[in-house]
Design goal:
Blueprint lengths: L1 H8 L4 E7 L7 E8 L2 E8 L5 H9 L5 E5 L3 H10 L3 E10 L4 E8 L5 E7 L11 E2 L11 E10 L5 H12 L2 E9 L4 E8 L6 E8 L6 H9 L3 E9 L2 H10 L15 H4 L7 H7 L2 E4 L4 E6 L10 E8 L6 H21 L1
Parallel strand pairs: 4-7, 9-12, 13-16
Antiparallel strand pairs: 1-2, 1-8, 2-3, 5-6, 6-7, 9-13, 10-11, 11-12, 14-15, 15-16
């Protein structure tokens, strides 16, 4: 219930349904949240020793299931298994009086799974077996429109493996490759996009130096590979960040000198520098346009999962010029924790 309250009051999600003990999985509760095109399911255990309790005990609060809506579940599932994906659940029909879907699941990086969902009708209900809920908590929408991408921390020397996996399983293609190296550590990254570019995964692996890479730090505290951050797309980042800050969301601090030459570095951006500086929003340009982005602090006591808010002004990249700034900010946060201990 605490997480539910947090996502409602801090991020502006609306509770649209809940369920208990679903599909033979006793001792768990799930809440279905919605904001524009974003849907999140929060699941918690009501007892020790359950599958959910064991997962949270091992990984902390984490993204365990990334679901894809597909047109032909049998075809997608068969291709995945044929190309070596781990079987989690074969296709099965799930329905109630309001909604009917087919679903299946495969394993991917770490303990994460992908669930495939095929919709056989166009019901206004998002998923079956959720009890419609009256949203009694006061919610202020923060303008989060969609999921832009997910960044996934993986073990060292695994970029090629997971790149090939998503090529074979889903016919993804590589769109970007970046490496960041600071005086202390670094990371290597690979971006894989779906055929229509609607799904983007940014795989990051550690490069250790004088200090342990923040990616290695994630892997240690998460006990293996997993989603490092989820990026929410907005069409007015200043308004979104202003509301999120008012709601108590904490963001990574950005050095003030970052903004000193920002407008000279990024010519012809239609932004108010005072707003960007005051809200500590990062900006970067590629050959298509520019983007604005900001990163929250980890939402858990573990230094693992956090969120990104991003607005694209035709840019297709991921803030190459800002990745190092983020990396340096995270490294400073690591050093601050070491100095306090």
């Amino acid at each position: 219930m605490q997480a539910l309250y947090f996502y409602q009051t801090a991020f502006g999600f609306k509770l649209i349904g809940y369920k208990y003990n679903d599909e033979g999985m006793p001792y768990q509760t799930s809440f279905l949240l919605e904001q524009n095109n974003v849907h999140i399911i929060l699941t918690s255990s009501t007892t020790q020793g359950s599958q959910v309790a064991n997962y949270v005990d091992y990984h902390g609060d984490s993204i365990s299931d990334i679901a894809f809506e597909v047109e032909n579940i049998e075809s997608v599932f068969t291709r995945a298994i044929k190309n070596g994906a781990k079987l989690i659940q074969e296709p099965v029909e799930v329905y109630d009086k309001n909604c009917k879907i087919k679903k299946a699941s495969i394993g991917t990086f770490g303990d994460t799974i992908h669930t495939f969902i095929e919709r056989s009708d166009h019901s206004s209900y998002f998923l079956p077996n959720f009890i419609t809920s009256e949203n009694t908590t006061s919610v202020i929408h923060t303008g989060l429109q969609d999921i832009d991408h997910l960044a996934i921390a993986i073990e060292e020397n695994h970029l090629t493996h997971w790149g090939e996996f998503y090529k074979k399983i889903f016919n993804f293609h590589e769109s970007h490759r970046e490496k960041v190296v600071t005086k202390l550590s670094g990371m290597d990254s690979l971006v894989m996009n779906s055929e229509d570019n609607s799904v983007k995964f940014v795989f990051v692996e550690p490069i250790n130096g004088i200090h342990k890479s923040q990616i290695a730090d994630f892997l240690f505290h998460h006990n293996g590979a997993g989603v490092q951050h989820l990026a929410f797309l907005t069409d007015d980042i200043c308004q979104s960040v202003r509301k999120l800050r008012q709601n108590g969301v904490q963001f990574l601090p950005i050095p003030d000198n970052y903004y000193d030459n920002l407008l000279n570095r990024l010519i012809n951006i239609d932004e108010n520098l005072a707003d960007l500086r005051g809200l500590q929003i990062l900006a970067d340009r590629d050959d298509k346009g520019y983007l604005l982005q900001v990163f929250t602090k980890p939402i858990n006591t573990r230094p693992t999962l956090f969120f990104e808010i991003i607005q694209r002004k035709k840019a297709e990249g991921f803030g190459k010029g800002n990745i190092e700034a983020l990396f340096l900010a995270k490294e400073q946060e690591q050093l601050n924790k070491i100095n306090k201990s």
